[in-house]
Amino acid sequence: MDESSRLIKEVKEKVKELRSRGLNLYPSGFRRDTTVEGVVKRLGELDQDALSKITETLTLAGRVMSMRDFGKAVFIHIKDGTGQLQAYIRKDRVGDDNFETFRLIDIGDHVGIAGKPFRTKTNELTILADSVVLLSKSQRPLPEKYHGLVDVEARYRQRYLDLMVNDNVRQAFILRSRIIKAIREFFDNQDFVEVETPMMQSIPGGATARPFKTYHNALGMELYLRVAPELYLKRLVVGGLEKVYELNRNFRNEGISANHNPEFTMLEFYVAYATYEDLMELTEELILYLLKKLFDTTTITYQGNRVDFTTPWARISLTDSLVHMGGVPENALSDNQALRDFAKSKGVEVTDREERGKVIMELFEHLVEPKLIQPTFIINYPIEVSPLSRRKDTEPEIAERFELFVCGKEIANGFSELNNPDDQRERFLEQVSLRDSGDEEALFMDEDYIRALEYGLPPTAGEGIGIDRLVMVLTDSPSIRDVILFPHMRKK
Is 225 helix (H, G, I), strand (E, B) or coil? Predict the structure, then answer.
């Protein structure tokens, strides 16, 4: 029998013994009057003399994380959602029967403790228990009792254990919640309206991505999980909601990697009478707001790299980045075959049918993106890879578009919106042609969206920010799975 099986067997035997004593292993509720954090904030600076003058009884609850049994007394540490605190249970104080029952409690159980504070000989703040009650019996030993929860896959599959035993993980997810709250504060303070748009759509749109498909029985029709909320949000701008944002889930049927999860959180926002240049400034304001509110700094460290968010951030055209950072010959950018040949020489997989814009983006992803550690706006993308973006008046083959990169990751994508319904129809038709030729990520034709544009979308700029990747950077997390509570994984 291996160690883990032996420990599970021991726990089951304790469960049987506790039940034979008539103990309710899962009683209803427990009234506590404070938390570990509350005790530490109030009493953490007091010495033993000051603590000895406190006459009130403190009542706490939490999970037992350690036990030291000295025969007639036991030291334990209990952990609640705010921290960890030591308790001291003495046989002569809680009674013989209660003490012997308590000794059947194990690490992992939830208990309620009532008692008075004191300091041990090692000066540790401790609760001297007058009573202890079992609140929930754990029927499996905590992982660190036999091997620790260090296996990455086990941490993701059993996130409840990861949160239980790894404090840094729990703190990262608490910080994620605070980041999202602060994002809402930022946009609410600027008079944006938060909205919700459909998760299931009859036509997936707003991004070039392969969608998930489902079927609605009552309507008798296929539906798609949305790849982006963009086309619905722009319909709202047509309707007169001039500043809107949505914080919600997108779904893309694509590969899984350190930077990709098929279900992810996206912030999208749209501003009437604005341009992509306005949104670059707004993005700087947003991230500086988060850094100052949550960290009181404009400089962080990500995976050993010092990242300085002091504005203004660099703005580099896509073609300049390819030439000066990626080593792409300038003359190759205007020669499709030369561009494909160069890509192949760098190990980038492209076909002879690959259009210029896609080859450029493949080269950028492989040769430039990993080098963009400091916050950098890459601007002026080919129009053929920007089917929803406005053309530049002076260079109609270029889109008024940017992407923000930090620590080698695309964090945001924004552009001046295409509001010309005739141009948008032509772009959709080009996408339909690509889809018919086998491109499963190309856009669908959306006649209702064209109809909305025909009613008039004012000059508008919009942007999407990947919340998971932003949280990765702000929490120094190497993988997107570290900032998603339950990431998708293959079946075991």
Answer: strand
